[in-house]
Amino acid sequence: MVYFSLVRARYHTHTYRGSGNEINFWRLPLSISLALHSGGTVRLLRQFLSCLGMLYCALASGDISISGLDPISINAWAGATSDLTGTDTYCTVSCQGACDKDVHRRDYAPAFYTNGTTDGAGNFYITNGSHSLTVFLDWTHPVSGTTRMTNHNVTGMRSPVSEGAYSCSADPNSTTRIDITLPAGQIASAQAGTYSETFLVDSCRTSGQGFGECTAQISFSVTLPELIQVTNLTNIDLGSWSGTGDIQVTRDFCVFRNGQGGFAITTSGNHDASGRFHLGSSGNLPYRIDYGQGGVFKQATPGVSMPFSSSGFTGNSVRDCTNSGGANTSIRLTVLETDLAIQPGGSFADTVNIFVLPE
To answer: What is the model's pTM?
Structure first.
């Protein structure tokens, strides 16, 4: 009997906290490399006239100000399958007269727009070179609720007319919020890198009281690290030798790679000075390991990386390769008849470590 075995998978969990949820995902420790980079941050800048500490616009019929705009940071994505959402709660005051009591509240209706990438429907995008991702921008008012905004420059959209507030500390109407969401459906297939854009909010749009120009910049960026994961790879049993012919067994497995990028693969295990893998125990039985995609196989050398430049191997942008029958890569093991014939009877086995790195 001749046996070949791989180390069984030990499942580890990684945790991402975002959007109020905690998400776990797992990986094969012997065959996954996960590179995390520091994420991007959202920088919220305020500019209007020469004001300090807040955005301020004085109109003939009243005043409006924004304060407490803080950075939104999305920098801990590690493969979670949910949306990524950055949130900032801030104060909007819109009033007439002395701004010291509720009767001085003044209605307003902000608009959002961008001078960057957009489309005919007024959707918002963040970009990384030639790559772009759709983001949703939502504005929430404590009375009028949440509105999904589009680019005012394209659609002319404003939020519903919302009741103003006369004080950040004494008036609950002042608590407003911006949410920027990157939908989950496009994250795994996106190229790794930093995506960014600058959006603008015009908070001086009013209802029936004229239009003022009062804009604040919202600079948003998110960094997607390079991720890779191996699944659907189990132990391989070569069975028994019939006494004639080679033994050859092929197994398929999945390599996930965000953005469907290339990867390098390295295999370590028992081997001799000539660079041949060995099945041990009852003796030293040489065997060969090949990896393949699309029916084209490349031979592995113990401890030597097989880079993307020589193999052309690419990962699947869908986890577990559910879009391709659960696999996109194959491992093939071959034991030659000439080597089998000179071995004593017995059992032979080897444990190999398979390392897959994004490139």
So the answer is: 0.70
**According to the model, what pLDDT value does residue 273 have?**
81
Contacts of 85 (CB under 8 A, 6+ apart): 18, 19, 74, 179, 180, 181, 182
pLDDT-derived band at 205, boundaries 50, 70, 90 = low
Q: Running DSSP on this structure, what letter comes out for residue 3?
A: -
Hey, what's the torsion of the CAs at 141, 143, 145, 149, to 10 degrees?
A: -50
Beta strands in 96-167 (DSSP E): 111-114, 124-128, 131-141, 145-149
Using a pLDDT cut of 70, give the percent of the chain over it. Answer: 79
Say how many CA atoms lie within 13 Å of 83 toward its Cβ: 13
The residue assigned the tokens 């093939």 is 332
**φ, ψ dihedrals at 223, nearest 5°:** -105, 125
Query: In order of start, what are the domains of the chain with their CATH numbers?
Result: 38-224 (2.60.40), 228-358 (2.60.40.2040)
Centroid of chain to Cα 228: 11
List for the chain the helix, strand, coil content (%; round to 5).
Answer: 10, 45, 45
Distance (Å, rounded) from C-alpha 333 to C-alpha 112? Answer: 59
Q: Report which DSSP code applies to 298.
A: E
Strand pairing partners for 289? 333
